[in-house]
Amino acid sequence: MIKPDGVSGNYTEEIKTIVVEAGFNIVKEMLTQLDKETASAFYEEHSSRSFFPHLVTYMTSGPVLVMVLEKRNAVSDWRDLIGPTDAEKAKISHPHSIRALCGKNSQKNCVHGSDSTSSAEREIKFFFKDVVSGDIATQQHDEL
Question: Which domains, from first to last, does the chain contain?
Answer without folding.
Answer: 4-143 (3.30.70.141)
